[in-house]
């Protein structure tokens, strides 16, 4: 991960997928991008869990804020999993605590830095909420 949150207990990373799958990202402006995920190339970076939604988004030029660096210390990478939630690892207590702080959280809410699809569904659809930007950093 990009750093370590001292308040999160040490745990092992979720298993990486065994087969290729696709993620469709729907951005805050309605734009969509489909990315094919090849498990042989994971992790793609060092931010968030290896193979996480955040890891995949950043490696493919998709803007997904992550003020804490992907260490479960904020909710700026909050996304909605519109399709394929069943293929994702189970949320930890630490992740659920942060999701509670995210505006408009619901049963499809996950943190992009912690959510790792296992590839059991051919397509995972992600929506990045419109308000999900770090306004202090972006100044917009």
Question: What can you tell me about this protein's structure?
Answer:
With 140 residues, the chain is an alpha+beta fold. A hairpin with a 5-residue loop joins strand 1 (21-26) and strand 2 (32-37). A five-stranded mixed sheet has the order 2-1-5-3-4. It is built from three helices and five strands. It has one domain: Roll (Ubiquitin-like (UB roll)), CATH 3.10.20. It is globular and about 35 Å long. The longest helix has 7 residues, at 53-59. The chain has helices spanning 53-59, 93-99, 135-138, and strands spanning 21-26, 32-37, 78-83, 109-111, 123-127.
List keywords for this structure.
Ubiquitin-like (UB roll); 3 helices; 13% helix; alpha+beta; 140 residues; disordered C terminus; 5 strands; five-stranded mixed beta sheet; globular
Summarize the SSE layout with pairings:
Layout: E1 21-26, E2 32-37, H1 53-59, E3 78-83, H2 93-99, E4 109-111, E5 123-127, H3 135-138
Parallel strand pairs: 1-5
Antiparallel strand pairs: 1-2, 3-4, 3-5
Poorly predicted sequence stretches spanning 5 or more consecutive residues: 135-140
Q: With helices defined by DSSP (H or I, 4 residues minimum), what is the helix count?
A: 3
Q: State the CATH topology.
A: Ubiquitin-like (UB roll)
The description of the largest β-sheet is: 5 strands, mixed
CATH C-level: Alpha Beta
Order of helices and strands: EEHEHEEH
**How many DSSP-defined strands?**
5
CATH architecture: Roll
Percentage of helical residues? 10-25%
Q: What would the average pLDDT be, to the nearest integer?
A: 88
Count of the domains: 1
Kindly provide the radius of gyration, computed on alpha-carbon positions and rounded to a whole number of angstroms.
14 Å
């Amino acid at each position: 991960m990009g750093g370590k949150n001292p308040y999160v207990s040490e745990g092992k990373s979720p298993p990486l997928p065994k087969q290729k799958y696709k993620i469709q990202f729907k951005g805050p402006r309605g734009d969509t991008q489909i990315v094919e995920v090849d498990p042989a190339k994971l992790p793609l970076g060092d931010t968030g869990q290896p193979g996480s939604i955040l890891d995949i988004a950043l490696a493919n030029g998709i803007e997904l804020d992550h003020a804490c660096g992907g260490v479960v210390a904020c909710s700026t990478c909050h996304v909605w999993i519109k399709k394929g939630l069943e293929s994702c690892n189970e949320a930890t207590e630490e992740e659920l605590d942060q999701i509670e702080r995210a505006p408009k959280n619901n049963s499809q809410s996950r943190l992009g830095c912690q959510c790792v699809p296992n590839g059991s569904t051919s397509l995972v659809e992600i929506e990045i909420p419109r308000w999900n930007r770090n306004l202090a950093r972006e100044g917009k």
